[in-house]
Amino acid sequence: MAKEKTFISEARREQILKATIDVLNDIGYVKLSLAKIAKHAKISTGLISYHFADKEELIQHTLSYLIGAQLEFIEDRVKREADIYQQLLAYIKATLTYQYEHVENNVALIEIIFNARTEDNIPYYKLNEEEEDPLYLRLENILAEGQRKKIFSSDFQPKATAILINGAASESMLLQSESFDLENYQQELIKMVTKIVK
């Protein structure tokens, strides 16, 4: 019975988080309210307050959910590969695919990072500056491992290269239109990265 209650509670929390993502896409962070999220999810505002103390806690959980979803999507594809170079390619392909297939998640992430503030009025993008982004860290570890195994060149810095690759992948979200060729962009990025690491 306790397990069933936990499952129902987790399902309800996920429903609220997904509704928050939808509303962030529809109206942005500035106009976001618990009432609007509740209306979209077709639940009461009180039910949201039961699961999340306030708007800030809900936003923090939404941010964690978004980062976790992207990391899981990418990691699932990277871990299928044993070869370190293939892991690098899998990371690049998965990152670009995620950007293309989950635009709504990316929009919500941007809305939170650049518009949300803590109770102390600190913008989210200035928080946890000492903590490593798990996505950047995963890629940095792939690059560093490739160097340790002498599969990759020692002429590049893993951290700087990870920033460069993730930046190019993230930028693809802003370029998407009918004329945007994702396959070609992916091939060019892989070609560029291969020249750096080999």
TrEMBL record:
Residues 33-52 bind DNA. SUPFAM superfamilies: Homeodomain-like, Tetracyclin repressor-like, C-terminal domain. GO terms for molecular function: DNA binding. Residues 10-70 form the HTH tetR-type domain. Keywords: DNA-binding, Repressor, Transcription, Transcription regulation. InterPro entries: DNA-bd_HTH_TetR-type_CS, Homeodomain-like_sf, HTH_TetR, Tet_transcr_reg_TetR-rel_C_sf, Tscrpt_reg_MAATS_C. This is TetR family transcriptional regulator. It comes from Oceanobacillus sojae.
